[in-house]
Amino acid sequence: MHVTIHQAKTQLSKLIEAAVNGEEVIISKGKTPIAEIIPVRKKKFKLGVLADVLTAEGMPDFLEPMSEEDLRLWEGRE
After folding, report:
1. Banded model confidence at residue 59, pLDDT cuts 50, 70, 90
2. Which is it for strands 2-4 and 32-37: parallel, antiparallel or unpaired?
C-alpha cells in the first residue's frame, strides 16, 4: 500500500493495523517513497537458556571458603 504524507497523517491507525497484519505500507512525498511503516518484532525471551549447559557439578560454590593455594593466588602472594 502506497500513501501520501497527508493520507498517512489522517489514517495512521488504519495504516498501523495494516502493517501489523503483514501488509507493506510505504509513505511517499509526491512520487518518491520516503518511509515505511513496519511492526515492531517482539523478541522471544527464554528463561534458563543455559540450564542444560551449566550444572551444579561444573560450577564453583562461591559461598565456600577458598583453599589456601587459591587464596594466595587471589591475593597475589605466590
Report:
1. low
2. unpaired
Handedness of CA 64, 69, 72, 76 (dihedral sign): negative
For residues 25 and 7, the answer to whether their CB atoms sit within 8 Å is no
Secondary structure of 1-50 as H, E, C letters: CEEEHHHHHHCHHHHHHHHHCCCCEEEEECCEEEEEECCCCCCCCCCCCC
pTM, 2 dp: 0.53
Domain segments of the chain as ranges: 2-37
**Residue 29, C-beta contacts closer than 8 angstroms, at least 6 positions apart:** 4, 5
